[in-house]
Design a protein that fits this description.
6-stranded mixed beta sheet, 2 domains, 8-stranded mixed beta sheet, FAD/NAD(P)-binding domain, alpha/beta
Length: 368
């Protein structure tokens, strides 16, 4: 393992990689163009499972399920180091109007996820007899994204990591197929290894390194409501919309999928639509006004499959990017795979689907 690692990007992917590398005894410096975890890591909902997990490709399931199996212990370790609470909560998820629920339940059984075909829980929330084929996933958990980011940041700093915020990388110095340093507007940081964890900006790349394949920003707009604690005690999902309760009574409603470039603006029409759809699931929201409306930029990738690999042109440059909607969910397993590749170990997970070349061969479809 190298001794001086520069990570470009201090979102969930960069922070989780930094934590794993620091715990192996190396020195880590993170450079971020903005605030730590200030982009999609902050903006998302924190559901620790793919939405309708049976609908995703095998590489997504492999990373997600490995993370989900150890997430509670991973968060507990972060909280012990940082002394901050990430609000991990195994609140379960209820999916409504699931197509072919028997097949979905069989998939869950095969992959070790508890799943029950049950619509009774929803009748206490929105007595709508049209909503049938409900699947209850009691083991699905969540974290509160901003608090996980804060805890990870504190853990990284506690272990000796260095974070430079509002400090974008502007270039690299190279020699004999290796990157020897990363440059910013004001400094040059010597590097034994470099990790690219640049999120939605990965498709732009650095001039010397090139853009990572098939990664582009996909905007998501969300709403936040404030109710009394306990009004909703589980995640609800229906036809692309989810409601995520927090223990203090806040409820998130989201999210859109918009190919809008780097535009993070919100609009009134989307607010009205999200509000209406949320109230259909939880009628009490019809009379509530959102307390916040925001948009974030996901690091979109075809099929939600990230790039976790060694750079094809530089022996000491590695990539951990393009996790799309599931960067928080995949963070522990993605960092584990990355560390295996950096240290030359045979990975527990098959690395082939996450290779740079595999990403080049994937194509975007008409939907996200």
């Amino acid at each position: 393992m190298t001794h001086n690692v520069i990570i470009i990007g201090a979102g969930i992917s960069g922070l989780s990689a930094a934590l794993a590398i620091l715990q192996r005894g190396s020195h880590v410096t993170l450079l971020d163009r903005g605030a730590t975890g200030g982009e999609s890591s902050w903006a998302g909902g924190g559901i620790l499972s793919p939405l309708l997990p049976w609908d995703y490709a095998g590489p997504v399931s492999a990373l997600a399920l490995r993370s989900m199996a150890g997430y509670a212990d991973w968060v507990a370790d972060i909280e012990a180091i940082s002394r901050q609470n990430a609000e991990f909560w195994r609140c379960g998820m209820l999916a409504l109007d699931v197509a072919e629920p028997d097949q979905a339940q069989a998939w869950c059984a095969t992959h070790g996820m508890a799943a029950y075909i049950d619509c009774r829980r929803t009748l206490n929330l929105a007595p709508d007899t049209r909503k049938q084929n409900c699947i209850w996933l009691p083991e699905v958990a969540q974290v509160r994204n901003p608090r996980l980011v804060a805890a990870l940041r504190a853990a990284v700093l506690s272990l000796g990591g260095v974070i430079h915020e509002h400090c974008p990388a502007t270039g690299v110095l190279t020699q004999s197929g290796r990157v020897t340093a990363v440059q910013t507007a004001t400094d040059t940081f010597p590097a034994d290894s470099v990790v690219l964890a640049t999120g939605a900006w990965s498709g732009m790349g650095l001039a010397e390194l090139g853009a990572m394949p098939q990664i582009r920003p996909i905007r998501g707009q969300m709403l936040l409501f404030k109710l009394e604690p306990g009004v909703l005690d589980t995640i609800l999902y229906h036809n692309g919309l989810y409601l995520i309760p927090r223990r203090d009574g806040h409820i998130l409603a989201g999210s859109t999928l918009e190919d809008a470039g780097f535009d993070k603006s919100t609009d009134a029409a989307t607010l009205r639509r999200l509000h209406s759809d949320a109230a259909e699931l939880l009628p009490i929201l019809a009379g509530m006004q959102p307390v916040q409306h925001w948009a974030g930029l996901r690091p979109g990738s075809p099929g939600n499959i990230p790039v976790i690999d060694r750079h094809p042109d530089f022996d000491n440059v590695f990539v951990n990017a393009g996790h799309y909607r599931y960067g928080v969910t995949m963070a522990p397993a993605a960092a584990e795979l990355l560390l295996d590749l950096m240290e030359g170990r045979t990975p527990t997970l098959d690395p082939a689907p996450y290779r740079w070349q595999a990403a080049l061969e994937r194509a975007w479809s008409g939907c996200f």
